[in-house]
Amino acid sequence: MDIKRRDFLELGFKLFSEKTIEMVNLTEVAEASPYGTATLYRYFAKKPGFVVAVAAWKWGQFKEENQNKRNDAAVEKMTAAEMFEIYLDSFLTLYKEHRDLLRFNQYFNIYVVSEKLGEDVMKPYEGITNYTRERFHVIYSKALKDKTLRTDMPEEEMFSVTLHLMLAVVTRYAVGLVYKSGTDEMKELELQKK
Question: What pTM was computed for the model?
Answer without folding.
Answer: 0.88
